[in-house]
Design brief:
mainly alpha; four-stranded mixed sheet; 16 helices; 4 strands; about 55% helix; globular; disordered C terminus
């Protein structure tokens, strides 16, 4: 537990008792899609060499100098409470080297973990002013989770490629190629945010604080005007509402984003907090970093595929329902197509008029949806 004793230089940590996780592997909290992608990348021969070569092209040194010169570095002399939270988060997740953290003047609430050789954490003044202590603790744990997972490397690549795409936008083919990579990285990064939210919960060990923080990111500091349960119901409405057109719009809306929608993040985190996997971690049963080298890429992909299959099967989204129906051989899909997109949200009426010449049961080889 976080008991205030010195460990890896993290002395004088906050006094509230929380469980710590010696030697914990990031695999313990990583989202299946995030984990399988990372395991595959880490297993690639020469992967580290390629990224070190890229580091000469990336403006990492410039970023570090920029934050050093134009932001406030968190330390025992500056933002001491944030400094305690940072060291406490590293202590709980057993991250040996505490990453430098900066507070940047920006009214937009935000935080990020970037860097190729060594991660650095940046939080904005808008975020510091928005969140209370326990909510902020979850955010810092979120960023430390990024650092432990190695996400900062890919985040830096994403920032660089996004900037590059803007510069070469006038070159049609060049821009298309870069944007294809950026789109793929964004899809991975959205999943990595779900992983980091879990890390934030492991650090803060206060689900309500994590929920409040996400709710404030969506609706501002008027906490007395908001309700966590109602906020989570929004996520259910978002997933289940509308027809196939709305499903397509959801995809289009999320493509340019680096983060999942806030209600979705809250629902995903609450769902994970109720699983046996989370409870096992809290009980001290979790993968260790010492076992990472023996991780199987095949097993990780199989787990990821199983997760997606389960997600599609249980999803209330109209598009996901359609996928399930197709996989299950539902016989009224043709009728649904004829009736238009709106037909994907409800089963056809029994007294719907049949086409001329269509016998009872014709074209109806499966159960009604």
């Amino acid at each position: 537990m976080s008991d205030g004793h010195e460990h890896n230089g993290h002395e004088n940590v906050p006094s509230r008792q929380r469980r710590r996780f010696p030697g914990i592997s990031s695999r313990a909290y990583e989202h299946p899609a995030d984990r399988s992608a990372l395991v595959a990348l880490r297993k690639l021969t020469g992967f580290d060499t390629v990224f070190k070569a890229l580091s000469g092209l990336l403006p990492e040194r410039s970023l570090r100098l920029l934050f050093l010169s134009d932001s406030v570095r968190v330390s025992e002399q500056q933002f001491t409470q944030l400094n305690d939270m940072l060291r406490d988060a590293c202590y709980i997740l057993d991250l040996e080297k505490v990453p430098p953290m900066y507070v940047n003047q920006d009214p937009v609430p935000n935080a990020m973990c970037i860097g190729l050789d060594e991660p650095i954490i940046v939080v904005t003044t808008g975020l510091v002013e928005l969140l209370d202590e326990e909510e902020m603790r979850a955010v810092i744990g979120h960023e430390v989770g990024h650092a432990l997972s190695g996400h900062s490397v890919y985040r830096t690549i994403l920032l660089f490629l996004t900037s590059l795409a803007v510069r070469v936008a006038w070159i049609p083919l060049g821009n298309l190629a870069i944007m294809a990579i950026v789109t793929a990285l964004r899809e991975w990064f959205r999943k990595s945010e779900l992983s980091a939210d879990r890390a934030g919960l492991l650090v803060g060990q206060d689900l309500q604080a994590s929920m409040r923080g996400l709710m404030k990111l969506a609706g501002g500091h008027h906490l007395h005007e908001m309700n966590v349960d109602a906020f989570l119901k929004q996520a259910e409405e978002y997933e289940a509402g509308g027809d196939l057109r709305d499903s397509v719009l959801k995809i289009l809306n999320v493509l340019p984003r680096s983060h999942p929608f806030t209600t979705v993040r809250a629902a995903e985190l609450k769902k994970w907090a109720e699983t046996r996997d989370y409870q096992r971690i809290m009980d001290g049963h979790y993968p260790r970093r010492s076992e990472d080298k023996d991780t199987s890429v095949t097993d990780s992909f199989r787990e990821s595929a199983s997760h997606y299959a389960s997600h599609v099967k249980s999803s209330k989204d109209p598009l996901m329902k359609l996928v399930t129906d197709i996989a299950g051989g539902a016989g009224d899909l043709g009728g649904r197509v004829r009736r238009g997109f709106g037909g994907f949200t409800s089963a056809p009426s029994n007294d719907e008029p049949r086409r001329d010449g269509e016998d009872e049961g014709e074209g109806d080889t499966g159960p009604k949806a």
